Amino acid sequence: MPPGLDNLKHLVVLMMENRSFDHMLGGLWKENNAIDGLRGDESNIDTTGKIVKVQPKAKYQSQLTPDPDHDFAPVDFQIFNGGDVPNMQGFVASFFNKQRNVEHSRNVMYYFAPEKLPVLTTLAREYAVFNRWFASIPGPTLCNRAFAHYGTSFGHVGMELFYANQKFKSIYDRVIDKGKLAKLYYFDQISSTLEVVNLLQNQPQLFATYPQFLDDCKAGTLPDYCFVEPNYSDHDGPGGHLIASDQHPDHHVAEGERFIASIYQAIRKNPALWASTALLITYDEHGGIYDHVPPPACMPDGFVAQPSATKTGEPFHFDRLGVRVPAILVSPWVQKGTVVHRRPDGTERIFEHASIPNTVSKWLLPDFNDNDRSPREAAAETFLDLLSLPVMRPDCPEFTL
Amino acid sequence: MAVIKISVPKTPKSAFNKNRPASGLLLAQLEHLETASGGDYSAPKKKPKKPLTEGQVAARIHELTRSLHPQAAHVQLPTARMISHAEEPGAGGGGAAPAGRKPPKKAAAPKRGRKARKRG
Fold it and tell me: Could you give the CA distance from residue A29 to residue A46 in angstroms, rounded to a whole number?
C-alpha cells in the first residue's frame, strides 16, 4: 500500500454550489494541455443564429442573475439541445429563457481567467485535478448531493428530500455502525445544512458547525470522514456581515475562494493532520453554466424517475451522468500537477458523486456488502490511489487570507 | 524547499446583499426545514406580491435549525475574522482566545508623545 494511504486517517469533502468545470478551470488548458479545458473555439448558437464562443469574461457576481435553469428538463435541453445526441449546444438558448435578452444569454458561456481564482487554480496546479468528474444527475442540487451521501437519490431528480428509512443507509450511518467517526459540518445555524430531513431531523448528533471544524483541525480531532458545507446565504453574524461562500449564482465567487482556502489552511497548519488527511473539493452540479464535455452513460442505480418528475415527456433510468464539475484532491501525498484522466490502458477514469461514498466504503469498510448499496455506487470509480508518492511533499503552498 | 504563499484577495463589502430575492435553493431548504420541524408546511399557492429576501429566509432557517439542532445553539457563531484566521489557535472559538473579540487591554503604559512629555 502506498505510504500516503497507510498514513491516511481523515477524509474531508467540501462541496460547493453550481459551477461547471469549464467555467472555473477551463482556462487552465492554455498552460497545461493535459487539463481538458477550453481551447477557445467552443461555442453555442444564440437565438439570433449567431455563434457565441467561450470567453474569459466571467465576473464574480451580477452576471448570472437570475441564475441559469438547472432543473432536470432544462439541463436535458442544455446537453441535447432538443435532439438525440449530447452535443452541449443548448446552454445559451436555455439561459435566454430567463430574461429573453440575447446579450445576457451569452454570459453563460463565460469562464474565469485563471488569475481571478487564485485558490482553486493553485490547488488544481499543485495537486490532482479530475478531467472527468461529473454531477451524478443532469439536474439540481439536492438529488445530486444525495449521491454524495447515499450513492443514489432513490429515484428523485428534483429538490425533494424525503429519504428517511430508505433502502440504503447513508455513508455516515455505515461508518458509525462500524465504530468509526463521521460528521457533517455546516457553516452556522443561519445558513444551516442542505442535508436536512433524513439527517438533521433524525440524527442531529452527526452535525457540527464551521467553528467546530476549525477547533477539530487545531486539536487534531477530525472524524475519520467528514463533509463540509459552505455558507449558503448573506446574513449578519456577531462580527458583522457574513457573505455567502457557496458560489451559487449570484453569490460572490471570491468569498467561496476564501472559504476553500480557510478549510485548506485549517488542515495545512496542523502538521500531524496535514500528513494524515486528504481533502476533496468539488461542486454539486454545473448550475446551468456551459461545459464542453458531454456527460457519459453510467451504471443505472435501479430506480426510474417518471415523466411527471422529469418533465421531458420521458422517464429517466439514471443511466447518464450530469454535467462536468470541478473536482480537486488535495494531499501532500499527491504528485504535484496530477491530471486524472485515463488508466494505463487508455480507458477513461470517470468519477461522479457516488465515487465519494464508494471511496469511503472501500477505505473504511472494506468488507461492506455491495448488496447494501446502490449498483451505481458499487460501480463508481474511487480516488485514494492518487495518494501515491513514496514520501510526503515539503513544498505544498499556503494561502494568506 | 521554499513554500509558495499566495495571498487571497478580500471580498468587497459591496458583495453583501441580504435583500436579494431568495434563490430556489434557499426556498427549497426552508421548505425542508419546515417539514422536518413538524410543521404542516405547504408552499403558498399564490405567489406573494414581494418575493422573500435572502435575509428573511435566513432568519427563518435560523429559527428552525435552532429547534432541530439545539446542540449547536451554544457554539460560537462564525465571524468573517474566523475565516481570515482559520489556521490560528482558537480561531474556531474553542480555544483560549475566542475569535472576533479583541484581547483584553493591558494596563496602560505611560504614553509617549506630546501629552506624556507635558506631564513629565
Answer: 25
